[in-house]
Specification:
two-stranded antiparallel ribbon, 6 strands, 3 helices, alpha+beta, 2 domains
Length: 166
């Protein structure tokens, strides 16, 4: 017998012997209980709203300064002569504008307006999420528990492996 034949025979005997030693098959187990595995997860959200708050400001007019400036310029022009007249006109216009502005805005007209203010806050948004099912089942008098991604119902398909004890 050649060496190749002997080696092939040993490999074949070993391969057949190991298949004869173990057997895998599928069967069904009875489901005893199914418990959903849940967790609480927070998905925070931002909640915003616009509120209107009163804001006061003083209303200022410009008409008094214009009229006062013109009147002061005319009065200043009446005083003096030559190049002094130009200086008096300018000084009268400035003084008249200041007096006119104070007269128009001295009563302190206050205007109240509503100004929008955006207010935001973060609120918790807790949600329940399913992570699978704890399945307790019975197969040939033994009880087992496994976490599964689905609810198997009343019966659970199981893979059974049988091997002799060595």
């Amino acid at each position: 017998m050649s060496r190749f034949s002997v080696a092939a025979g040993v490999v074949l005997a070993f391969a057949t012997g190991s298949t004869a030693l173990a057997a895998d098959f599928e069967d069904y187990a009875r489901v005893l209980s199914v418990t959903p595995q849940v967790e609480q997860v927070n998905y925070p959200q931002q909640e915003c709203r616009t509120e209107y708050v009163p804001v006061q400001r003083q209303s200022r007019g410009v008409g008094g300064s214009i009229v006062g400036g013109v009147a002061g310029g005319i009065l200043g022009n009446q005083v003096g002569g030559g190049s002094g007249r130009t200086v008096a006109t300018a000084a009268g216009a400035i003084a008249g504008a200041i007096v006119g502005d104070r007269m128009e805005n001295s009563n302190g007209t206050i205007v109240t307006e509503q100004q929008p203010v955006r207010q935001c806050r973060t609120i918790d948004n807790w949600q329940t999420r399913n992570n699978g099912y704890a399945v307790t089942y019975e197969y040939h008098g033994h009880t087992y528990t496994s976490i599964m991604p689905y609810d198997p119902g009343d019966r659970l398909r199981v893979r059974v492996s049988v091997a002799p004890r060595m």
